Amino acid sequence: MSTNAERNVHFRQMQDASLLGGGVERIERQHAAGKLTARERLELLLDEGSFVELDAFVTSRAGDSTDAGEPFLGDGVVTGHGLIAGRLVFVFSQDFTVLGGSLSEACAGKICKVMDLAVSVGAPIVGLNDSGGARIQEGVVALGGYADIFLRNVRASGVVPQLSLILGPCAGGAVYSPAITDFTVMVEGTSYMFVTGPGVVKAVTHEDVDAERLGGAMTHTTRSGVAHLAAHDEPEALDLGRRILGYLPQNNLGEPPRVRTADPAARADVELDSLLSDDPAKPYDMHEVIRRVVDDALFLELQPAWAANILIGFARLGGRSVGMVAQQPAVLAGALDINSSIKAARFVRTCDAFNVPIISFVDVPGFLPGVGQEDGGIIRHGAKLLYAYCEATVPKLTVIIRKAYGGAYDVMSSKHVGGDMNFAWPSAEIAVMGADGAVGVIYRERIAAAADSVGEQARLVAEYEAEFNNPYIAASRGYIDAVIQPSQTRPRLIAGLEMLADKRADSPRKKHGNIPL
Questions:
Q1: Are residues 428 and 448 in the same domain?
Q2: In whole angstroms, what is the distance from residue 319 CA to residue 263 CA?
Q3: Are residues 200 and 303 in the same domain?
Q4: Which site in 30, 164, 244, 261 is 20 to 30 Å from 267, CA atoms measured?
């Protein structure tokens, strides 16, 4: 019979073995590739000393899943819970040093356990992905493990925040779990996501492409829109994960954390009063407007390099977390196209799911015209953004900066689709279309018959602009709650948020809506 001393020695040996993952040699190879280990990542992500590990001694249930004869303790993933800024989170961190981080039945069981715990106690789930995919030796059992995870991703969606940090390979079926989660962060040069690798692509389509171009961080943050942010290295990616969670509540029944700020709520920024040019065709940078309005000029922009004609991200106003949606006039004149509609719709729904008020800054000339857009389904994709705003029940505050033309006026959180407080700057132009286009339609024959057709058109455009291209007609009907000086934007928004803090909205009972996917 073993003595207590012998049992303690055995425990320490087991514990030391679990901490080493795939062994010292593989850890060194991980570092040589510019990557941290699964445990080193958790140390950076979580508050110091807060990690509590679960299932450290779980081993593979397949006898041939190790190349050393003995099963690896933990079997390729480190799971547990810890704190981020003092708040509980559940985590899993795939260990590439153990059989390439491949997913086995045991790995999937560990991940599913922490996901179930997270939902049951109402805490965020953070996944650190670094895996070669399903463990081939286990066949369909490993594939079933992925499906078990996918099901939990869907059940947790809109209940607790889910964050995926891609810190190495993520291929095949593995990519669908991050795609379901709320936010995805990648690392430049060392992480990638794709359904099929370069070798299969070349064999099937004869396209010669490397892993970076096919599914690297730059591809997914500039071309596909799959990832929200790209970090220069792993510590930056982990810090971005902490920052994103700082704007979100623990779950759908909670409120986002409110923080103290030294930025006065009544602060007026007089520079905004002269920011816009008198020429309505001259673009400006909407980032400048956002920074001058939000607390401490801090704006955590998401997907900045994809569909850049619209800006989304988190900020704070009066210490409250808010989601910002704003046109960017410097790109495509701020017109809504397919990608920008998808980008904004997803973000609006995320904010609504987690009780984050939505602030919309509007300067939109309409939906982007063209055969390519129509062929690509701009109607369906634009309807996603419309649906998202109509569906959202969180406080919605809108400021029309300059143009709000046509159907895009309706879509962008207008009073008609449930905007709670709608403001306009004096520069706002709210109309079916711009003056030139409107005059060309209404007075076509009159202009053609004039002796000086150019002069006649200019005169009619000036009359139309004076009579219609202003915010006062909309304000006279209550579609705009107030026309405000630009410098007063911050205090008016903060006052609106305070007023709407206890907003309640009743929706018709239904299983779920049918968003035009």
A1: no
A2: 9
A3: no
A4: 244
Q: How many residues can be counted in the chain?
A: 517
Nearest-CA neighbor of 268 among 439, 485, 35, 74?
Answer: 485
Residue type, 276: L
Residue 353 three-state SS: helix
Could you tell me the two tokens for 118? 């997270």
What the block records as the tokens of 243 is 């920052």
**Residues spanned by the domain of 102:** 4-245
| Catalytic residue annotation | 172-173, 407-408
Lookup: tokens for 262: 């030294």
**Phi, psi of 140, rounded to the nearest 5 degrees:** -65, -25
**Would residue 72 count as lying in a domain?**
yes
Instruction: Give, to the nearest 10 degrees, the angle between helix 286-293 and helix 489-499.
Output: 60
Closest listed residue to residue 309, CA positions, set 344, 275, 279, 360: 344
**Cα 185-190-196 angle, rounded to 5 deg:** 85
CA–CA gap between residue 162 and residue 122 (Å, rounded):
11
Q: How many CB atoms lie within 10 A of CB 217?
A: 24
| Domain-located, residue 256 | no
Tell me which DSSP letter residue 336 carries.
Answer: B
**Are 478 and 464 part of one and the same domain?**
no
Tell me, what's the pLDDT at 259?
Answer: 96
What residues form DSSP beta bridges with 431? 405
186 forms bridges with which residues in the sheet? 166, 230
Tokens of 229: 């942010």
Strands (E) across 261-364 are located at 300-302, 310-317, 320-327, 358-364
**pLDDT attached to residue 6:** 62
User: Is 411 within 8 Å of 384 (Cβ atoms)?
Assistant: no
Phi, psi of 234 (to 5 degrees): -65, -45
User: Does 445 lie in the same domain as 311?
Assistant: no
Whole-angstrom distance, CA of residue 10 vs CA of residue 232: 41
459 & 363 share domain: no
pLDDT digits 0-9 by tens, 104-120: 999 999 999 999 999 99
- Per mean pLDDT, which range of 237-241, 386-390, 435-439, 484-488 is the poorest? 435-439
**Residue 87, helix vs strand vs coil:** strand
Q: Residue 180 and residue 200: Cα distance in Å, rounded?
A: 24
Q: Which helix (H) or strand (E) holds 454?
A: helix 453-467
pLDDT at 135 over 80: yes
The rounded radius of gyration (Å) of the Cα atoms in the chain is 27
Q: Which residues contact 486 (CB under 8 A, 6 or more apart)?
A: 269, 272, 273, 275, 276, 425, 427
User: pTM score, two decimals?
Assistant: 0.93
What total of structural domains would you count in the chain? Answer: 3
User: How do strand 192-194 and strand 183-187 relate by DSSP bridges?
Assistant: unpaired
Beta pairing, strands 300-302 & 87-94: unpaired
Which residues are within 8 A (CB) of 419 and not within 5 positions of it... i.e. 6 or more apart? 360, 389, 396, 397, 398, 413
